[in-house]
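Section 3.1: Structural characterization of target chains.
Under the original work plan, the team committed to producing a structural model for every single-chain target entering the pipeline before any wet-lab resources were allocated. The record below documents one such target. The sequence was received from the expression subgroup and is listed exactly as submitted; it comprises 527 residues.
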Amino acid sequence: MINRRAFIGGAAGALAGGVMATAGHAESGEASRPINVLIIMADQHTGNCTGYAGHPYVKTPNMDALAKDGVVFNHAYCAYPTCTASRCSMLTGLWPHAHGCNLNVGAPETNPDRGLGPDTVMPESVLFAQGYATKHRGRWHAGDQKRHACYQAPDGYRYLVDWYAWLKEKLPAGALDAPPSDRGLFGHPLYMTEEAKAAQDLFHEKGWTPAQDITAIGRTAVPYEYQEDTWVVEDCLALLDTYGDTPFMITCSMNPPHAYWAAPDPFYSMYDPKEIELPPNQARPPYYKGSMGVRFFDALGEAGVKEYLRCYYALVSQVDHQVGRLVNKLKEMGQYDNTLIIYISDHGDMNGAHRHLMKAVTPAMYEEICHVPLIMTCPKLLPRGKRVETMVNGVDLMPTILDYTGQAVPKEVQGDSLRPYIEGEDDPDRAAYTEGTHPTAAFVGRRMRTREWRLYWNYQNWSTRGERFERYTPTELFHIADDPGEEHNLAGDPKYGAVLKQLDDRLRQHLRDTGDPWLDQLPKLAV
């Protein structure tokens, strides 16, 4: 396996000798201001859950406008359907098995062995060396930010610690003119339906609730103006005011639509659960029974799941509102045309499909948690109203940013710049890959998605009462062209043996090409 510290240090050395001296310019041949970069990142926003993607309920007018003004990637996939691993792949252009950050890290994280090391090469570190102002606001989830000079962490930013203190100052308990509630969040009322309350009570009774109470679903009394994402965006708007003629790269990372699913008005009231239908793909294989997402779905029941979806959609609309605020600020500054704006999420949410909720809390890697929204807009550089059909990966984000800002991409980077596809090329054979690896091999999964097919295998090696046991859940092969809901597993059908063999060979070649240490430790798939 690649040694992560040695690899990243080597990449830094290669970069020092290979970076171009000047950043990209908005207009070729003109001595204009270098291109700015603004990444707007959501957490757990699934790829089909936008207006521009044709979702039947969700209202996202600002994302829709951004999509109309830029490029939409119809088939963008995360590298790993959990926060830390996916974000680290976007930052480094490396697959999770290469950068080594496979488990979520805390915020803040002080363990030097967790998260990305100080020598990690990221777009921010490259652009910081070229004179850019580089900042990350909101959820980073990749270790201790103070390790990285490019984030200028000595400014004292402490993310949630500061937001909690700010919220306590602005809204001390009892300060809201709100009716009482038997449920609460951050010391303020949370209004939950009876179905949501029952599910929460069950999870607490069984001890199923992790550190973050995933069962907090409903309308929060905390106004939109005091929500965490509003606080993060306000900070980003203030940063933009300070830069003047300085080119910048800012990441504005918001928590919604991740838990807590506590939505304020006016967004909560935008959706009526009576009008919401559950996704049509409700097939649930028995080998996923007992997972957290399945237990949550069953505990809520249909009415409770609809309330979950109501809150999830409301939080997506809340994020959309924040997108509009950021875009309007760039327009006021006269920097909208000169800024590469990227909207993306780290992973998706099951949203009730296959009778699952939440993210990768099971070995499952369905489309809903692997497919993410991806929009890129920069009127002076990118075409408008373009839809890219080529499959793209989370590892492609880092080299794309470096390409459009005129920087060399280190040879060790495993992703590819998306510029050829943005500018007209189409590669119908390109595949998207998603992986999952628990460091102790409690779980290993590898997924490949082409335009027509989806292949997936996973291996589990658990320890119970001092004894270890191994388990392979059935290989999954779905013909996406005919079965977009992934409900009919064809892996055991002899008629598709040749297809399975072809895709299996291709997946293994990808693992071989990227130095995946699990390639030779897993048996050949049955054909």
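The first strand starts at residue 36 and ends at 42.
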